[in-house]
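ESCALATION

Customer reports they have been waiting on this structure for their group meeting. Please prioritize. Original submission:
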Amino acid sequence: MTQSTPDSSRWLGWLLAVASTAVFSLVTPLGKLALDGGFHPTAILSLRFGLAALLLALSMARTAPQTLRSDKRGYLVAGTAGLINGLGALGFFWSLRRLDSSVATMLFALSPLFVLGMLALRGEKFTYRQWIRLGLGLLGVYFLIGPGGQVDLLGVLLVLSGVLGFTLEITLVQWYLPTYDTRTVTLYVLTGMWLSISGLWLGQGLPWSPPGWQGWLVLLVIAVVSTFFGWWAMFRAVQTIGSGQYALLLPVETLLAILWSFLFLGETLLPLQILGGSLILLSAMLSVQRLGRIPGRRRWRVWLRNTR
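Update from on-call: job pushed to the front of the queue and completed.
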């Protein structure tokens, strides 16, 4: 007979789940704030992922040193996934120089739909319900960037490059590393992201503009709180409440990010843009629900997470 999880542990699990969702939601509006304050996009991402990977490695070395090691397949796939998503994260952060944080966040909410489309290339059945989800998402994009207002198309393309990088990362891990420890995979994905971003930063000549103390504060919050602590809290929460329950909070993260953009950045949306964003969120919620029912991939539902 299986023992049920004590109520106190479940409460702690849900508390950590909500906490991680809240801190993850800060990444985009805080990133926008840092960029508006003069921080170079490539520089802030290199520092963010480098610091987060270092903190995660130190934490793992202290609590579970065996998770630092992997085999050749693990290093190769996780590292490659990170290299790809590093370029995607660059595209997303560069888009914040051209788009409002709220608009970029809603566009990125298309990620689960992209993941489903990628899985269809590997034989997952693309049902009529999938077409409905796709239709809702595309209609939402039309209202968001078309009649809803003058939205920079290059900025939109940069967000979509971030969505594509994230999708490729998710599917590579899901296809080739389904049984590997999530902490180990995360460490080497973050390391791969740092390598690709830092390589590009080096190729650009290490451009730098003094960000001021506010910029440094934002960097520390994004790297330490939203990336390192967020991932740690998510791991602990999933161990207690399960990845399926955790996935229910994903739309909440998007809504919180939009709320922070309104409150702290003074952004506004026109009515048609709100309608478009709502349709995108509905499509994302339905896509997450579908991903949760795909056999053999339950533990990777938690990867539907913004490593932007």
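Sent to customer with the following note: Residues 212-241 form the longest helix (30 residues).
Escalation resolved.
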